[in-house]
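Q: Okay, next protein. This is Pseudouridine synthase from Nocardioides abyssi. I've checked the sequence twice, so it should be correct. Can you predict the 3D structure?
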Amino acid sequence: MTQVDHRSLSVPDGLAGERVDAAIARMFGLSRTRAADLIAEGHVRLDGAEIGKSDRVLPGAVIDVTIPSMVDPLEVVPEIVEGIGIIHDDDAIVVIDKPVGVAVHPSPGWSGPTVVGHLAGAGFRIATSGASERQGIVQRLDVGTSGVMVIAKSEHAYSVLKNAFRNRTVDKTYHALVQGHPDPLEGTVDAPIGRHPKADYKFAVMADGRPSVTHYNTLEAHRFASLLEVHLETGRTHQIRVHMAALKHPCVGDMTYGADPTLGRRVGLERQWLHAVRLGFEHPETGEQVSYESTYPADLAHALEVIRDAH
């Protein structure tokens, strides 16, 4: 909820004849631009009547102003998120099973649930390293991608895991259901990825992009689609989705990257068929090799069954 602040003041003699936006700025300690915006949005009344910003004020007139508080889009709001599973928890790390439709951390333009908000709401203390809205976050999954991910709880774990991801020593395994049949059945896509030149919410293979390496292996080949096991060497935003689309085998249901909407509807998907199934790394405290897994959520399991049964 956006909180609001209601204030009423009488115009002092010294501001008689001033434009109302200038008077409000002086009386309420606002910038002239903010005052003009409040008037334009209908948040200001002069003696009970609506006004224009260039109207003049008379001494003794009562100005009523409603000031909505500016909401910080990056503020972490503690709230329990339905569907987030805790796979493992100790003093150093918490490993979760992220459902679809949940962002890892707040960002401008996203008002939905977040992983960090859930952890705060559930009473988890996580590392304070990193920007305030993504403290403890050492990796990310897209809003539309589900599966296993790790969050650092201690500062030591944060720095160790951050280095492990940077040095590519983490085993990141995904399963992707892609349209058609990749040729060869297993291979490596080594193609740099950068922001899409025409749509800033997308990415694309770009000559001047960042190095990006994806290894894939076909687990099942069906009439309309293939189930792949994918290992990420690098961790670019949308990497698997971009690389599979570049091979002309986009993830089933991934309309952003050119998937067939008819097939998406047939299997009941409104998001990409992509799931982080396994995450393996050296535990930041014990040094032992650990691995955590996540099973397919219901929507992906159903879509895969439809593909397996298609003749």
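A: Here is a summary of the prediction. The longest strand covers residues 171-179. Helices lie at 20-28, 32-40, 115-121, 155-166, 239-246, 261-267, 298-309.
Q: Noted. On to the next one.
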